[in-house]
Amino acid sequence: MTSSGIRVLLLNPPGDELYLRDNYCSFTSKADYYWPAIDLLAQSGILSQYFDVHVRDALVDKKSFTDCLDDIANINPQFVLMVTGFASKHNDNNFLHQLKQRLPGIRVIVSGGYPFFQKAQALEENPEIDAILMDYTSNGSVAYINGDYANVVDMLYRDAGGIVESPSDPARKFNYPPPRHELFPLAKYRIPNSKRRPFTIMLASLGCPFKCSYCVFAGIPYQSRGIENIIEEMRVVRDLGIREISFIDPTFTISKKRTQDLCQRMIDEKFDFTWVCLSRCDTIDEPTVDLMARAGCHSIQFGVESGENAILLKHTKDLKLEEVEEAFRLCRKYRIDILAYFIIGLPGDDEISIRKTIDFAKRLDPEFASFTVATPDYGTRLRDECVENSWIKVENDNFDSTDTAIIDYGTIAPARIRALHRTAVREFYLRPSYIWRQILRVRSLADFTDKLRNFLELLRKQML
Predict the structure, then answer these.
(1) N or C: which terminal CB in the chain sees fewer CB atoms within 10 Å?
(2) pTM > 0.90: yes or no
(3) Contacts of 343 (CB under 8 A, 6+ apart)
(4) How far apart are alpha carbons 389 and 38 in whole angstroms?
(5) Rounded mean pLDDT, 224-229
(6) Which of 375, 371, 376 is nearest to 354 (CA)?
């Protein structure tokens, strides 16, 4: 497939924590789960058409900085495309500095939330970064690597001492060649709600049309990928022997018709996939859920966020609690598991509303609950509000929704928010009824080992 001798390394760099830093987000894994970085996965199919592509996930392989640098030196690539993010910013910048010291001639392209939302600052702060890929589904990286700068799109790069911001391609459709899933260490990835391993991730759409104040995807225009292009990738995944897929679209079910059309194609193709997706409670109905289940969907992840309607309204999450309960009822009717997301400490929250959120989570009783601390992510209206009201120190850009509470909006102190976050995790996961239900759901020794490992990591990171 390659037409040049240029070697390109797609790198998820090593770290001092298990960082998830793809798809314009970054945070520390709440337990012991991890998935391939979609930025690198999408680029693997694009770049493999032209270059000799190698992949290293140094984080999931648990490589030290030294081991990773030795590995890169052995591959000897001319270009490295690396993911980074705010949660791992200092770790990643340190690694880049060591990489350029070891291999000064290597060219480094980065992708991720940190360079996407702070593009000029990222280049100014890091002389080791040669270019930023602004859209990881774009083929603009091909022209850049080939030195064809007149045709570069969707990138920022250094040129003759200055910084060039290339345009986007307004005519490009949101399609890309099937990624090279087989280059990634799929056997080492795991998520708590998968049914089969190995699994991989896929993308059917990007961005989100909803305007939740705390979400980075509200600032990324929604694009839907062509169904035939998705089916093409699914055929490749099937032929690799992979039967489990996690769709990482911010909202997989934006269009009920499109969701139903895709599910019907999956049924017609007889793929026999089991799969997971993210959704909103007010974007599904019974015909859609029925078809999703028949196409192999076994888990849906919903952003519930709060147990207080006033908090949802304040942060333009135009969702009512009764809509949440109806969506959960539909999923249970069609035997679809639920992973629900909740946010502790959104401005407007107090002890009473946070208590309502914890109690609502227990009443909903999803198979998994993910509790995060509200963070002022770049690219969100929440950050703008925090800066305008001096609720955060503007220079503090190393935060993690899994671990840090830094918004001080006066009603409740950050330290108390952090304590209530731990309380929420403990109260949900240490219920005897919940523990017993998980024991009854164990399917094998390997499944038991995964559940135990995740529980111990959850205990260590979020309960103690």
Answers:
(1) C
(2) yes
(3) 214, 305, 306, 371, 372, 373, 374
(4) 35
(5) 96
(6) 371
